[in-house]
Structures are given as C-alpha cells and as structure tokens.
Amino acid sequence: MGKLERFEYTETSIQDGLRSFMSSPKFFLRNMYVFGWESDVLILTNSGYWYEIEIKISRADFHNDQKHKLQKFNFMADEDTSNKPNYFYYAVPEGMISPDEVPSFAGLIYMHRSRPEVIKKAPRLHKEKIREEGLGLADKFYHHMVKAKTECAQARREVKDLHKPFRKGYKMGAMIAVDVALQKIRLLCPYHKEIDQVKFFCEKQQKEFRFFCHGECGLLDKLQDEMEKSLKIGAYVEQ
After folding, report:
1. What is the pLDDT of residues 21-53, one digit of tens each?
2. Which of 41, 79, 128, 170 fits as disulfide partner to 53, beta carbons 3.0 to 4.6 Å?
3. Long-range pairs for 57-64 at CB < 8 Å and ≥24 separation?
C-alpha cells in the first residue's frame, strides 16, 4: 500500500472542501461582510436561509475566538435578534475539538481532508428568510464575480504553464554553461592533467582534485570570468 501523504489544512483548503457541504446553493461566498463581521464562508440556500461557517485550524485559534468575539457570541445566542445567519457552524480538521466544546448556538463540521462531515447539527437561530425581491442585482453581481474568479484562476494556470519550458531552459542552459566553463579552464590551465570527467591532477600542487582546485595560481579567477560569459550566452538556451 502506498503511504498516505500529509494533508495541510488551511483556511483556503477548507473553504474549497466546503463547496460540497451543500449541493447547488444560491450563493457560496468567502470572506464576505454581510452581518457586520467577516464570515469565512457564507452559503445562501435556494429557500432563502443563510449558513455561516467559521473555519478554525488550531485549538488555540478556536479558544481565542471565544475570548475576543464575545459580543458576536452573545448576539448569536440572543433569540430575539434576527440580523444574523439562520445557522452557524464551525469547520475544523477531524478531531481537533469535540462537539461538547462548541457553543449551544453552533454546529460542528469535521473536515476529512477535503470532505466535510456534520458531527453536530446546528440549531436554527431564527426563521426569517432573505427577501427574494432584494436579490435581483446581488444575484447578477454574484454570478459575474464567480465567472471573473474562474477566468482569473484559469489565466493563472496558463501563465504558470508558460513558465515551465523557460524554467527547464534556464536549468539546462546553466548546466551547459558550467560544462563550457570547465572545458575552458582545462584548456587554460598549464598544470591541469585530466584523470576523468570529474577528477584531475594539478602538477603544480601535486594534488588530485574534483572539478576545481583551490585556485592558488589565480586561474580560478579566470574560471569565474569564463563562467559569467558562458552563463550570459547559455543560461536561457531552451532545450
């Protein structure tokens, strides 16, 4: 059996995985301000209910949130308020926190790599739905935004693909430049006696070396000059 690669949980990777939390939502939003605070993920269902999902990737982050966002917590727990999501969840790496640690107004989602699993179902915080007549312009904006993000991601992938042959060309060109420089120093040095492609014997120092000597005779400085010239010529040769 192959070894399972370690998965790195980040806010972005969890956001990507939460795409499958609900099939065909009306809106799926990341890092947006709708209820007076920034929400990691907001999902609007076709029936008009908002789901907010708060992402935590460490226990410290989870507990700090409860200390520093007390006002939000009190607001979410207040049954008489309605300017908030209908359902609130925490999404965390599998097993990071237990259901007992989650506030009473929240649900809990475990992320198994990129697959979400509801461990504790969130209670409904209020029954008020978003008004359909107010969504016309927002709906158009959302679909334009999704299209623009998709096109931007595609453009980035295409640019990255364009870089690949140039990176390969630079690497191969640099290797060629090193070979050219080594050949030139072998020709320039009167004390160089080649043993094989890697080793040589310096008759002046009466020593055997690999690739380079210590350069006491000053020819190493010439090698550097030859290397720079060769790199200028060969570094960007595409293979």
Report:
1. 998 888 898 888 888 888 999 999 988 899 999
2. 41
3. 57/9, 57/10, 57/11, 57/14, 57/92, 57/93, 57/96, 58/96, 59/96, 59/97, 62/90, 62/92, 62/96, 62/97, 62/101
Name the more confident of 126 and 132: 126
Contacts of residues 5-9 at CB distance under 8 Å and 24 or more positions apart, as own/partner, are 7/113, 7/114, 9/57, 9/93, 9/111
Q: Does residue 59 sit in helix, strand or coil?
A: helix
Give me the residue label for tokens 């609130």: 88
For residue 138, the number of C-alpha atoms closer than 13 Å in the C-beta half-sphere is 12
27: which strand partners? 44
Cβ-based neighbour number of residue 85 at 10 Å = 21
Predicted confidence (pLDDT) at residue 166 exceeds the cutoff of 90? no
> In the structure, what pLDDT confidence band is assigned to residue 227 with cuts at 50, 70 and 90?
low
Average pLDDT of the chain to the nearest whole number? 78
In the chain the beta strands, taken as DSSP E runs, fall at 27-33, 38-44, 50-55, 87-93, 107-112, 115-120, 192-194, 199-202, 207-210
The answer to whether the CB of 129 falls within 8 A of the CB of 48 is: yes
Tokens 């990176």, located at residue: 167
- The residue-averaged pLDDT of 186-213 equals 71
β-partners of residue 53 are: 41, 89
Cα 12 to Cα 178: distance, rounded to the nearest angstrom: 42
